[in-house]
Amino acid sequence: MRFFIPPRVKLRTREEGQKQMKILIAFYSKTGNTKAVAEAIFNALQEEDKVLAPIKEIEDIDDFALIFCGFPVYAHSVPVPVHGFLKKIKGNQKLALFSTHGARTEGRMQKEAIEHAIGLAKNAELLGYFTCRGQVEQAVLDNLMTKPEHRAWAMEAASAHAHPDKADLEDAQVFARGVLKKALKFKEFNKK
Question: What is the model's pLDDT at position 192?
Answer without folding.
Answer: 42
